[in-house]
Every structure is written in structure tokens, then in C-alpha cells.
Amino acid sequence: MKSVAPAFPALLHYEAAHRILMGYMDYYYRFKLITKRARLRFEQRDWHGTQADAVSRISLYRQEVAKTTERLKRMLETSHPDDDFWRQVRDAYSEEIDHFNTRNIAETFFNSVYRHTHGIGAHPEVMFVVRTGSYREYRGLTSISYDYDLNDRPIGEVIREVLDHFPFTVEWENRTRDIRLVAERWSSHPAAAASRLEVLTSVFYRNKSAYIVGRLLDGDRIYPWILPLLHPTGRGILIDALLLEADQVVSIFSYHRSYFLADISVPSDMVDFLQTFMPSKRVSELYNAIGFEKHGKTVFYRELLRHFKHTANDPDERFVTAPGIAGMVMYVFTSPRLNMVFKLIRDRFAPPKQVTAETVKEKYDLVKRHDRVGRMADSYLFEKLSLPLDRFSDDCLQELRRAAPSKVEVLDDCVMISHVYVEKEMTPLNIFLQRADEVMAQKALRDYGRAIKQLAAANIFPGDLLMKNFGVTRVNRVVFYDYDEIELVTECNFRHIPQPRTPEDEMASQPWYYVGPKDIFPEEFPAFLLRAGAQLDYLRAQHGEIFDADFWNDVKRRLLAGEIMDVFPYRTDWRFLQRVES
């Protein structure tokens, strides 16, 4: 397609703004179309379709930005626009989106197109780097929730009215029973004293579950009010639990999980609502949770700038090498009060690592698109990220230059990093186990085993099961964060170690049998996970099957048969019906 000279060159900036706006509108239409399909998938039990939609929605943003960029380049190829021109484009674009419900998302789309066009980092004079409105960026005029006055009303009647607002085209298994179970749990909880219930109009869908999300207001206290719904094979829809405590719901919205599919009209109002009962969650995390991960990245960058501003006079708030055993593939640094880590791919990998930098990037992209089941850390990828030079300790800066000189450029007042992943900081599991008492250590080991099993259920074999590659979160949940050796379970060959044929075979320092590139021997895991002793004995007692090839081959068989296994983001003993066929 050839570029066409505008009839009025003085309005070229307006035409450029319009082209970006049309790209955004196309993206947002397709985003909404995918989320609107989620209810239909749930009703039809089309779990593979739900997962495919989740993946395609992540790719959608990148695709639409690329298409918009190409159209824009063709339109501007003979004009050689400078910064003054792009400021005019931004101002014209800003005027057009001023009253959008999704103005903040539209601003991020503009930023992405500009960066994609120019191949540079943040440009404060041209891009929407700082927020243009309130801290929540936009406040809608229409209500995003159904509101119920609870004074002098039977709880069962309220629950029935809530469910009436969410009509499904398929039958409930036993709605009367579910209303009774919800009412019983609600009545026995301190939240029963609340005077008001507000329930979001959007249902949240992910994998094989749907969630009705609300909050209870009791004076200054706010409780979550969440109903997880299931649609098991051969049965109707049922309510699986009522979650009323913040620590019960933070895992559902965790950055370790896939993003929800939800039909949302005003994302910033939705985030504001969710944060009232999850105050520990960053705004950026909640944007991620509801599917706007690119805007979540924008908000995180703004949070980072605020952090730099608020700690400007703190000499102890400098970047240092992250604690733990240094990785052979990634160099990791952090800042004491930021609670985030920055991970760079080293220019060279020490033996025995044989992966390439491109392979590592592919693994991170796989994790971004895969179901993380609460056991793999999500990350923001930044390209050409500029960080203040005076925020780096001498040791950290020296290690950056040594580990990844091709990706690090030290300028007059900043350090420019060409490719870096940013994740939530966790305590490495090996360090946690060294510091923990026996009770906490055993709890972590139990969760470590559960993490491996849940990853397997999601078709992920971590590859390197060493404790240093797992972290413990603020709520003591074990999460995997080292991705350079992950493989799909369905692509691995799990084997038992063959019996030796002779005494010489048994004493040989090298395997006497053939080992293929995808061959894995689970019996070998204990030898390098933990030293022989009480902790290894406890892990064997709790999760010994992970050391048996039969366990892995059974999981592989089920996955190859097309089964999507249940991994619930809340505890089994919180479920009303603890044995539900899927």
C-alpha cells in the first residue's frame, strides 16, 4: 500500500492521531469480543476455548500495535516528523479520548505505537509517561456494581436477588441448596453485620471457573464477597464456595495466575473497587489481573517513578545484587524497599548451561502466555529502560557491566538497559528453609511439592527443581521463577533408571544406558534437591510420588488425552462440595 499525501498538510498531525485512535478502537473492540465469549465458553464447558482465548488476547495487543505502526509509517514516510510534530499528535489524540471510559488504556496504546515507531524508551515530552488525571486515571459516570441494602433483609433473599442478576442459559445443579450453603457461611462470619453489599456487574472467568465478585461494607470495614462458580461435566452450574477474607482472595487475583476474562466498561473504576478489599495489591497488579497487562506495565513504571521521588534522600535505597545464589543465566538486582527484582540475561552462560539468550526469551514468553496456576511469577519486559545512575551501588553497577555489557549503557545521569524483566521479589526457598523453624520449613516443603504437582497439571515441567529456583512470597506461598529450562510435560520422556547389568555398571561414574535430550529420571531428583536428613525425609513422606516416573507419565497421559486438570486458587476445605467431578 502506497502512502497518500494529505490534502491539508497542516492537519497531518490530526490524521496521525486518528490513525492511532482507529488502531486502539480496533484493539479494544477485539478485546471486548474475546471477553464477551467467556460466558458462552463457561456455559458450553469449552475449557480449551477459554484457554485459547486467554492466549489470543495477550497476543492481540502486540498484533494491533504492530499493524497500527506499519500504517502510520506508510502515512508519514515522506514527512520526517520531529518531536514538535509528535507533541501535536499526542495533544490531538488526547483531545479525542478525553471522555473515554478507557482513556488510560488508550494512552498506553499511544505510548506503545510511538515506541514501536521510534524504537526508543520512555519520552516524557511526547508520550503519556506521567498520569494525566487522578491517581486512578479515570472515574466513570455509570455504576459498575449492583448495590444491596442489607438492613432487615433475609440473607437468602439477597443471595437469590444477586444470582438473578447473572442469568445463564444453562440450568443450575441445585440453586436452592447453593443459596442455603452461602447463607450459612455468611451468617456465621463477622461480615454478617455488614449493612451493604456491592456486587460487580462483570463476571470474572478463568479456566474452568467463573467468579461473582463483590464487597461488604460494615462501617469502616470492607470484606470481599466472592462466589466461585463451577460447571462440572454432567451437572449444572453450582457455587463452590463463599470467600469473605482478604487472605482468601488475594491468591485468586495473584500475579502468579493467568489474567481474567471479564467484560469491563471502566477498568480504572474496577481496579479502584478491587483494591478496597485487597489494599496490599499494587494498582499495576490489578490491571494485570483483569487483562490489561500492558497498561499494568505503564502504571508500574509510574509507581517506579514515584518510588524514586519519595526515596530521593534515602542513601540506603540503592540497587544491590539480589540475595541468594547467583544464577548462571540471569543477573538479578533489587532495591530494599521496592519489593521488585530486575533480571538481565547474561551475555555469556557458565557451563553446564547450554541454552541461548533467544531460548531464555522464548521461555519467558511461554510463561506469559501459559496458565501459571499460581505457581509461576509474572513479569514485565522492559526494553530500553532508563534508571537513575545515582540509585546504583558501586558493586551492582560493576556487576551489571561485567554480566551483560551488551545490554547496559551508562550515561551521564542514568543507566540504560536494553532488555530486562521485572518481577515481584520473593525469598529464595533455599534461604527460607535455612532461616525457618521446623513448622514453617515443613509448611514450605509441603507447598513446594504442591507447586510441582500443580505445575505438572498445567503441563509445565520446571526442568531445574533446585530450591534456589523457587521463591516464597509474602503470604508464604512457594512459586517457581527460573524459566530457562522449563519444558512442557507432554514433550518430556520420563523414565525409570534401568537396573544395572553388571557390578561394573553399578559402579560406573557415567550412565551405562542411553540418555536422550528429553529423557528425565525423577528418581535422581532427591540427590540434588536436599541433603539427606529430616527435610528430605519429610518431603518424601509428603510428596514422594514426584520422584517416581509413573506419576509424571500418568500426568502426561492425561494431558495428551486433552484433560484440563483442576487447580483451585483457594483451599479445598473452603469448598462447599469438596468432591466435584470435572
TrEMBL record:
<keyword id="KW-0067">ATP-binding</keyword>
<dbReference type="Pfam" id="PF20423">
    <property type="entry name" value="AceK_regulatory"/>
</dbReference>
<dbReference type="InterPro" id="IPR046855">
    <property type="entry name" value="AceK_kinase"/>
</dbReference>
<dbReference type="GO" id="GO:0016208">
    <property type="term" value="F:AMP binding"/>
</dbReference>
<dbReference type="InterPro" id="IPR046854">
    <property type="entry name" value="AceK_regulatory"/>
</dbReference>
<keyword id="KW-0329">Glyoxylate bypass</keyword>
<keyword id="KW-0816">Tricarboxylic acid cycle</keyword>
<dbReference type="Pfam" id="PF06315">
    <property type="entry name" value="AceK_kinase"/>
</dbReference>
<dbReference type="GO" id="GO:0005737">
    <property type="term" value="C:cytoplasm"/>
</dbReference>
<dbReference type="GO" id="GO:0004674">
    <property type="term" value="F:protein serine/threonine kinase activity"/>
</dbReference>
<dbReference type="GO" id="GO:0006006">
    <property type="term" value="P:glucose metabolic process"/>
</dbReference>
<keyword id="KW-0963">Cytoplasm</keyword>
<feature type="domain" description="Isocitrate dehydrogenase kinase/phosphatase (AceK) regulatory">
    <location>
        <begin position="17"/>
        <end position="311"/>
    </location>
</feature>
<dbReference type="InterPro" id="IPR010452">
    <property type="entry name" value="Isocitrate_DH_AceK"/>
</dbReference>
<keyword id="KW-0547">Nucleotide-binding</keyword>
<keyword id="KW-0418">Kinase</keyword>
<feature type="domain" description="Isocitrate dehydrogenase kinase/phosphatase (AceK) kinase">
    <location>
        <begin position="317"/>
        <end position="571"/>
    </location>
</feature>
<dbReference type="GO" id="GO:0006099">
    <property type="term" value="P:tricarboxylic acid cycle"/>
</dbReference>
<dbReference type="GO" id="GO:0008772">
    <property type="term" value="F:[isocitrate dehydrogenase (NADP+)] kinase activity"/>
</dbReference>
<protein>
    <submittedName>
        <fullName>Isocitrate dehydrogenase kinase/phosphatase</fullName>
    </submittedName>
</protein>
<keyword id="KW-0808">Transferase</keyword>
<dbReference type="GO" id="GO:0004721">
    <property type="term" value="F:phosphoprotein phosphatase activity"/>
</dbReference>
<keyword id="KW-0904">Protein phosphatase</keyword>
<dbReference type="GO" id="GO:0006097">
    <property type="term" value="P:glyoxylate cycle"/>
</dbReference>
<dbReference type="GO" id="GO:0005524">
    <property type="term" value="F:ATP binding"/>
</dbReference>
<keyword id="KW-0723">Serine/threonine-protein kinase</keyword>
<keyword id="KW-0378">Hydrolase</keyword>
